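mind reviewing this stuff:

——
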Amino acid sequence: MTDPALDPDLDLLEADTADIPAEEGARPDDRIDDDRHDEENRLKPEYVRSVREALEEGDKGAVYDLVEPLHPADIADLLELMDRDERGQLAAAITDLMSGDVIAELNDYVREDMMEALTPEDVATIAEQLDTDDAVQLIEDLDEDDQRAVLAEMDVEDRAAIESALSYPEETAGRLMNRDFVAVPEHLSVGDLIDYLRTRHDLSSEFFEVFVVDEKHHPVGTCALSWILTAPRNIALSDVMKRDQTLIPVHTDQEELGLMFQKYGLISAAVIDENDRLVGQITVDDVVHIISEEAGEDALLLSGAGDGDINEPIRDAYGARVRWLVANLGTALIASLIIAAFGAAIEKLVALAVLMPIVASIGGNAGTQTMAVAVRAIATNQLTRANTWRIVWREMRVAMLNGVTIAVLIGLATGAIFTPMLGAVIALAMVINIITAGLAGVLVPVIFERLDQDPAVASSVFVTMITDSMGFFAFLGLAVASGLVG
């Protein structure tokens, strides 16, 4: 830490700032208070209502004044808060504020609506403002004819980069990577590199490290900007660069990509093609979006809610959800058939009908708990082929402990209210069902994963079917076998 008393430059800085005239009638902290006030009121209901009222009145000037102070991400949020027919009016009122950064932050469905209202020339202009990865995200959702029309309006260099990215499968590093990066040969010195960075005006606008490559453009190391700024100018890059680096093949799935950044604490990483040549980079800001997207996607798939986006068209939302409800109806019929098979026993002992929902409900909850743990473990690569049976045995032991605990509680309560024998029956049925739930909760996702299917997609339907069916069968079967029902 620098001692102010020993550093005359700090005194000079303080003197310079002290001479800056303050706005007449304003206190020094007025600007800070104003900024804080704007932040607190940003996108609040009152603010959104004001924008809507200005739109209804056709006062584009008032709309522009209200929106102009917003950050691009906040403008994107404002567009999403508007009704579908209001978005076009708002975009028309703030045309020069509709930058590429705003479009890149928009929800997928809202962005598609906005793109439909723009000409290919407008879309091309927006795409050229964006980093390559964001431009690809903007164009990839368009129809093929629209894609060709937009690409035809772009510069040759930008068009070539986007066409190259679109040639890779979706949700892979090749599609997500940014082709704007800084790469230099390893024979340079630190001073040469600094001079190069200062004199080149076509470099990437943001980068965290410089990639060092050999004569075949293979990455051989990296230099963090902090090292470059602090190392002596005459030191060779080969002496200060970090040779150990995480290289990402272009076909790496985005979920695995997120795990790599999380596991190794990466800020950026080089992307290499099939010939191990450096072709792009992935930065941590892109990975944050990937991790958030994958986590939300798994949670929604577990519930069978499809994309779960409030901006998703009603017909698409209906189609995504109803098929799993129909599947659930089919599995529920299996449990109903088991109940029907014991219909005579239920008629003779009404208490069975009273207690059946408890057995099924507790088993379903236990299965959902285990399934959530298993799906997350698979997604984070904690559950693999190497440790599957150890995890299965672990979850079985947890299920046994849970089963015994719940069995004791329900058994004592049932014995006190009805009969001790019925208490013993439901206790044993509860142990059987919770153990079954634990086994199904981990094995169903594993089986889906082994079949190259997303374990989050339909696991809940099958786990619920197994726990309901086994719960009813164990409880009613034990009641008949114990002689409770004559």
About this structure: The chain has three domains: 34-176, 183-300, 314-481. The chain has a mean pLDDT of 83.
